[in-house]
Amino acid sequence: PIRVLSRSLRRKITRQGPLAIAIHEEHSDINYANKRFAESSVYFFYEYDDLFRMISLTTNFGGLLLEPLRCEYDTRDGRIIKLHNFSFLRDGIVKRILGETIVVESRRDEQDAEVTRKVMVGELRVAEVNVVRDILGRLESTEWTIFGEKRPIEKRTYNIDGQLTQLTMGESENRRWTLHYDLDGRLKAINERKLSLASGGVPQRFEQVIYEVDGNGWTTRRGDLRFETDVFGRVRRVVQPGSLDIEYGYDEQSRIIWRRVGDESLQRFFYGYPHASHLISHFTASSDEAVSLIVYDEDGMPISMHRNGLTYAIVCDADGSVRFLFGQDGALIKEVIRGPLGGIIMDSDPTFFFPLGYLAQFDDPVVGIVIIGADARPLDTVIGRFMTTTPTFATANLDTFHPELEADPFRLTATKATSPTIIPVDVSEWMTMSGFWLPDAVPSSQPDSRWNSPLDVCDASRSHALSAAFCSLATKTVHFSHFLTVSTSGVLPPYQYPSRTVAPKVAYTVVDSVGFRGVLFANLSSEKINAVMGTQQFEGGVLSVLNSILSKSVLVRTDDFGIIPSATVVAEDHVRADLIRRCTRLVESRLWAREVRAVQIGTTARYQWSDSEQMELSTKGVVANYDIIFHPGDSIPLLSNHNLWIFDRSRG
Q1: What is the value of pTM for the model shown?
Q2: How far apart, in whole angstroms, are the C-alpha atoms of residue 159 and residue 635?
């Protein structure tokens, strides 16, 4: 057995081969002031099928045996079809979750994004939501209907950089937020409340709230709240002198396992799902010692809670944040409305404790923080920024496509609702979209493997029946997932280049550029065509005929002006010079017109004009003694790129 020991937790894991079949946890008692919170113990027992998938979970809390949680899977695509008391049905774009008292029906668009959802408890339709998305797939408007009564429509608008700039809920002014950003994309104000950030993005002041940070830039004080963190950047304690003292405990995986609120209450959290070890499966509270079970769908979103024989329906918004909880009779137990940064604006019943909140993560609304991700990073919901960094930040690979995350380590990435639709590039996502649930269909002892990572799939230590097939599949799709990297092509036959060497430069024509689909031209070391291949079946020896006709032919390329750069075809110098003059005049006229427009409407211009120059610009359309010159610097010298032209006062 594997044992984990700490001051507050003792865990013993019994394995059968690579699979955990039993976990025994003993949580120590916790003392604060004159209050002692009793210890707790729990047993988790697991059963698996032939594909190493969990089929039953039996839980014993201090001698109290809970109803086993059982799972069933579709024999064709591997997706889960039964979990606990719920059945999962899928019919094209419609997905239904059927429970004993709860029914959830959702419809999705062609991008697999949810557009409508209906929730019924018994015979009562308790909630319905309709979602409208923009052309990029970002959430544009949300309309909730609760017990047949429509709520104010929630609308979102975005700026040119894709950042949320406004959130409105109806016509009320106190439900309208306008977000302002600086030139670096950092939040600088919400409505009229200004946010001051120091170098590195650490907070200094938000309206009248003063922030303090330590040498790492980690938040240690927000107003009269003081935060204590450990070396991993996890919040350990929050103190408000004279009124509040909240403490948190974590296990070896940075999962929160207990929360103490003064000498009033203690909540403990347990993680019993082997396939999703970061999800809270059970939790208890010292107030009544009842054991609560949280059931999630296949996407990791909570759908129900079971406590003392009662079933509660959980309804989340497009971000996955918990919005409503309904009782077994359909009564509204709890409603939570959040602002654009995750802070709670309205809570219908703050005394009803539920650990999940913003983004379906651990949420503590008392102190306004959310514990996010595997590193347990605390998010400040007052300003929507992380309070600390984690060790993984120092070891993370540079993300060249999102440099703002490297320059601002305290930034929260765009949430699910405000993110555009991204075309999947790995095998697992494509199979999921086609209705094939790869992790549950492949017999693997590592259910949390990264199926899109060749290092994981092809590693000899990984144990699954189709390892060779998936390793081969990864090499054949690397061209599409890393299109701009230097790697061997998965399209050309392997005999055309030696193994484990950098492949020669390969050029492809656009599939439709030759007038029909299915033909691929490849040229290796020269301009001549080496092979004509087909991406589909052709009859009558079409490919062999094309190969004989086009063999040793030359692919004609042109530059930006349509001139063929070939030694056999020489363009006159004056032709090229005339084309450059025409392009220059066109760019100059457009840039002057853009400056005039900026001065007239009062927006930021490309150049810092004086008052007299602005007057001249408005009346004449140009400013004397100024030239527009092409200054590419280290960029690609493309004349049509307006950003490479500058205003230069070289005359007068």
Answers
A1: 0.70
A2: 26
